[in-house]
């Protein structure tokens, strides 16, 4: 099996790895490129049991499809394709979709999942930090879903990735990006649940460790297989601020697919960041 990795110049290099490797001190692993070592083939193979397409489709309903239609989007760039769930849902709904991921295993799985659903996926293998070296087109919408942005461990990487997403949007385009409600976890306000994205019945997903710069999650499957992800716990207000700072004019945030939400309850937040210029005197949002 091949694991692709990116060096500082963004060139993809490869190494062989069969199992996840967090070294001797897993809590010290706070490195953006490490997602490549985490999404190994054995975990990618289990990802669909974790997210359970049917249950997820029921939980999400038409939220993203309706949001994108309301925004007038036709051409969508899915930058965190994973195994292809949203790319396939959007293709089925008639959108023109291009599917990006930095991890080759994920893209290969997405391609075969899409084929099983009767669609040919248009894929691009690219790390977000160097997205525009590989994506040479403009889109009505960029989607970054399934708590993916959390894989960026450095502030600079998050700014760079957002700037790359911004650059690939047309002037009136929109970024739709979701995140787990880490505020509730960091502030110890809720017991973590996994209602929406991680809704497979054969898996238990729980945080093993949380501090201000690391959320380490464990995924335990019924057959005894265990995997981990080391992620950066994004505070909601911080993500909203970053989006504004890279140039998005208006950011609306939804909680668990609802327009109004009580701050501490949602599992997930969904940010809808619009690029279209707004006169700030009209809008203090
Ligand atoms: C949590 S998975 C979510 C996948 C899918 N959106 C879903 O909801 O099932 C995160 C995905 O983001 C990709 N990813 C993480 N960091 C990345 C980066 N810096 N550049 C490109 N892809 C990245 C991973 O390879 C993985 O497929």
From TrEMBL:
One of its GO terms (biological process) is protein homotetramerization. PROSITE patterns: SAM_GNMT. Gene3D superfamilies: Glycine N-methyltransferase, chain A, domain 1, Vaccinia Virus protein VP39. S-adenosyl-L-methionine binds at residues 39, 47, 56, 80, 101, 127-128, 145. GO terms for cellular component: cytosol. It comes from the Bacteria. One of its GO terms (molecular function) is glycine binding. It holds the Pfam family Methyltransf_25. Keywords: Methyltransferase, S-adenosyl-L-methionine, Transferase. It is an enzyme of class 2 (transferase). Its EC number is 2.1.1.156. Residues 76-173 form the Methyltransferase domain. Belongs to the class I-like SAM-binding methyltransferase superfamily. Glycine N-methyltransferase family. This is Glycine/sarcosine N-methyltransferase. It comes from Candidatus Filomicrobium marinum.
């Amino acid at each position: 099996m091949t694991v692709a990795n990116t060096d500082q110049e963004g060139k993809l290099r490869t190494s062989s790895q069969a199992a996840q490797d967090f070294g001797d001190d897993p809590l010290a692993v706070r490195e953006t490129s490490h997602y490549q070592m985490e999404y190994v083939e054995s975990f990618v193979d289990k990802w669909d049991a974790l997210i359970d397409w049917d249950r997820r489709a029921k939980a999400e309903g038409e939220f993203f499809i309706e949001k994108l239609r309301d925004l007038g989007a036709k051409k969508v760039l899915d930058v965190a394709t994973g195994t292809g769930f949203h790319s396939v849902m959007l293709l089925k709904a008639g959108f023109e979709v291009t599917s990006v991921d930095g991890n080759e295993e994920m893209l290969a799985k997405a391609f075969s999942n899409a084929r099983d659903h009767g669609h040919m996926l248009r894929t691009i293998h690219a790390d977000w930090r160097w997205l525009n070296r590989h994506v040479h087109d403009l889109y009505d919408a960029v989607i970054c879903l399934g708590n993916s942005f959390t894989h960026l461990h450095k502030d600079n990487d998050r700014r760079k990735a957002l700037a790359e997403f911004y650059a690939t949007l047309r002037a009136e385009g929109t970024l739709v990006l979701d995140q787990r409600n880490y505020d509730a976890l960091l502030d110890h306000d809720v017991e973590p649940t996994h209602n929406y994205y991680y809704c497979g019945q054969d898996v238990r997903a729980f945080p093993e460790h949380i501090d201000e710069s690391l959320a380490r999650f464990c995924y335990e499957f019924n057959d005894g297989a265990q995997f981990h992800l080391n992620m950066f716990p994004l505070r909601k207000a911080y993500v909203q601020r970053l989006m504004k700072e890279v140039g998005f004019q208006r950011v609306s945030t939804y909680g668990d697919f609802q327009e109004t939400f009580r701050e501490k309850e949602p599992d997930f937040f969904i940010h809808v960041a619009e690029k279209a210029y707004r006169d700030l005197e009209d809008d203090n949002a």
